[in-house]
Amino acid sequence: MPLREVIDRILFRFFTIIERIRIATGQSVWADFKLETEVFWEAFPDDNCGDSKTTPRLEAIGRDDGHQGSERVQYFLRRDYERRGVGNFYFGLGDRSKILKSYHELYPGRIGEIRGLADDLCAHVIPIFGKRFAFGRSVPWLHDPLTKREWPLRYWALIDTKSSLTAGGVKWLWELNRQQFLITLSKAYFLTRDEGYAEEACSLIRDWIHTNRPLFGPNWSSALECSVRLICWIWTLHFIRGAEIIGSTLLRDIYSSIYLQARYVESHLSTHSAANNHLIAEGASLAMVAICLPWFRSSDRWRRKGIGILTQQIHRNILRDGVFAEQSTHYGSFVVDFYLMVLLLLKGNGGDVPELWCNRLRRAGEFLASVMDVQGHVPNIGDNDDGRAILLCESPEFNPYQSILSTLSVIFDNVDFRTSGKFFDEKTFWLLGLKGMKRFKDLGNAGASDESIVFKDGGYCVLRDQQSVLTFDCGPLGYGDHAAHGHADALSITLSVEGRPLLIDPGMPCYGENPVLRNHFRGTAAHNAIRIDRENQSTIGDVFLWLKKAEARMEKSAFTTAYDYVSGAHDGYGELGVFHRRQVVAVKGNPFLGYWVVIDELTGNGRHFIELYWHFCAEGHVELQDDGIGILRVSEMVLTVAPVKCMGLKPTVYLGNSRPFQGWISPSYGTMLKSPVLCYRGRAELPFQWTTVLVATHETAPDMASLRRVLGNAGEQIGDIFDGNDLWEPN
Question: Nearest Cα to 81, choosing from 290, 296, 287, 242?
């Protein structure tokens, strides 16, 4: 651990001790917080007073006289909420009739679906990571829905939320307490004007405030969780504006909790290894609270700090070529959504958007569009916990990556993003409103890209044509010293043909709930890569820690009319005296849907146990032929995996095996499905070379003569890489 991080951890412990002492002695703002002391009164002009017969005049209420000060703040906050809401938000409530008309046209039947979801929420049936939990009369905010563990209401720093792995971690409890389901309830109110939905949303917020004493309990132990909850509450307040349930006392309680949570975020910002998506979420929440509620005395400071954090972190988390530094497509989209929300709020409220934001977000869109296939699938690279910056669309068909591209297409007037985004999804609808919808329609469509591209900074090469997308990973393990969300997937490839993923990354079903299972899914054997002597390329430490890290690099690339070519290497097995190089050739002008040659070279000395894995989509069925050729059949698609000169390694097909644990995919966090895996394994002397031909076809597998003929032609064109005629000899 770096010395600076050690010092900061010691200082952090010291300040938490001081904080506890102040709370215990009643000398802390947390002990007896009064909102009126933190309100910038000059933000409320005298003309807000309204009818003098029913409204206390400013001069009649002192600023420091207890009960009258409380009455004063409650009146003015209620008045401000009625007139201004949470500021110039993403869409205006005055356009409700037009919004409803467009919503009906864009999403027919959707209001009924939202009403059904909201009715379940009113009965306290709450979805968490795709599972539905029925909580009965009240929601147990301190009760883990998965493990049934009851978390203590102790001072937050005394609760171990990181290493309590035997109790299942805290992930599912935190997901419940993000309260993102409030958006569904508040949307249901906005769309139907059913007061019951607004009442339930307010009841859940009030109950959460009552149960979770400030700075006590696990729900006050993460600035990230507070940040996501803050953003959710702001959206909820906007959707339910005008509801009868919103009274002065309730508003005061909600605003007080928002202030305290924002103050907690400000004083407990993520640093060092956690200064990744966590810190970006925290900066975004501070900026959004400040923009939407400018009458807090701290708002100017929070705005500067929040925007400063976002500006400082964007070049660290989104590289110059648009690749996400955490080496996770999911967390990349998570980060982008925070930037989009703050960017649009700044634009709507007269603020300047840093040019760096626009540049990096545009690049991020280009990266996502490049790895996306024609049906919107994106490789599931790195960790994925299904977390959202904001839950504005509950549909299981919602595609967060296409949604980002749809939003970016309007912001940057980019027809290429619009082509990949395809659809003005519900999240984009709420972010951009009616004007954004019109601009999206006016953009039109462009043809899908068929250009291969290298992302040098992030370490990816994408080989594309009209039918297929192959992604080759030569990037670093992850972000920073811990590389928390990265996987041991150096030189792994994924492949999608005609919008159907065939070679996949199996995803991630859990974090701290099951460390053994997590380690499998982030290990080398869970990727389309080579494992040596049953070791991972990189050494796993804790749940979010890697020790020794493989260094991968892209060596060469060439894109011609006859072929696309890329090579990469990594040193992850250097301690074993083994070095791995992989070359990938996409052969053009062949009679199939796609034809690729993958050449794996292992250099070094000695005899080693070698495993080469191919992970297929869960819908597929794999047949293994006598000559070692694997045939994947899925719907009307066939992928042939044909080893050339099949010597030394024997093929095995896994499907839902427990010993060894193999043949599983996690389509979403908390779930697993059986999925076929083809593994070639055995002992061999180094140096060692293994060549695989991948061929995609419709319905029937190609014959061997056709495979050899294309390989021979390719060898003539790329003679410096391999001699196709010499390489593949009949068995």
Answer: 242
Distance CA 449, CA 13 (A): 52
Tell me how far apart the alpha carbons of residues 92 and 348 are, in angstroms, rounded to a whole number.
11
Q: How far apart are CA 679 and CA 649, in angstroms?
A: 9
Widest CA span in the chain: 99
Q: pLDDT by residue (tens digit) across 184-202?
A: 999 999 999 999 999 999 9
Residue written as tokens 């009960």?
67
What string of DSSP letters covers 83-110?
Answer: HHTTSS-SS-GGGHHHHHHHHHHHSTTH
**How far apart are the C-alpha atoms of 652 and 614, rounded to whole Å?**
11
470 CB-near residues (< 8 Å, 6+ apart) = 462, 463, 464, 493, 494, 495, 584, 586, 596
Q: Read off the tokens for 556.
A: 């060469």
Q: Count the helix, strand and coil residues of the chain and give each as a percent rounded to the nearest 5.
A: 40, 20, 40
Q: Where are the alpha helices (DSSP H) in 240-276?
A: 248-267
CA distance 74 to 68: 10
The letter for the amino acid at 58 is L
Pairing of β 125-128 and β 131-134: antiparallel
DSSP state of 499: T
Alpha helices in 376-507 (DSSP H): 400-411, 415-421, 426-443
Q: Give, as one character, the DSSP assignment of residue 701.
A: P
**Cis peptide before 667, with omega less than 30 degrees from 0?**
no
What type of residue is 502?
A: L
Q: How many CB atoms lie within 10 A of CB 534?
A: 11
Element (H, E) at 705: helix 704-717
Q: What is the DSSP string of 519-586?
A: HHHTSGGGSSSEEETTB-SS-B-STT-BSS---EEEEEEEE-SSEEEEEEEE-TTGGGTEEEEEEEEE
Please name every residue paired with 616 in a beta bridge, in sequence order, or none if there are none. 503
* CB contact at 8 A, 401 and 368: yes
Q: What is the 3-state secondary structure (H, E, C) of 153-172?
A: CCEHHHCCCCCCHHHCCCHH
Half-sphere exposure of 233 (CA within 13 A, CB side): 29
Residue from 577, 487, 568, 483 nearest 533 by CA: 577
Residue count of the chain: 731
Distance CA(490)–CA(473), nearest Å, equals: 6
Judged by DSSP in three states, 617 sits in coil
Q: Are 335 and 388 in contact (CB under 8 A)?
A: no
Whole-angstrom Cα distance, residue 174 to residue 35?
26
Residue by residue, what is the 3-state secondary structure of 322-377? CCECCCCHHHHHHHHHHHHHHHHHHHHCCCCCCHHHHHHHHHHHHHHHHHCCCCCC
pLDDT in tens, 236-287: 999 999 999 999 999 999 999 999 999 999 999 998 767 899 999 999 999 9
Map 124-157 to HEC letters.
CEEEECCEEEECCCCCCCCECCCCCCECCCCEHH
pTM, full prediction: 0.94
Peptide bond into 396 cis (omega under 30): no
pLDDT at 59 over 50: no
The span from the CA of 649 to the CA of 74, in Å, is 75
3 state SS of 382: coil
Q: 484-541, pLDDT tens digit by residue? A: 999 999 999 999 999 999 999 999 999 988 999 999 999 999 999 999 999 999 999 9
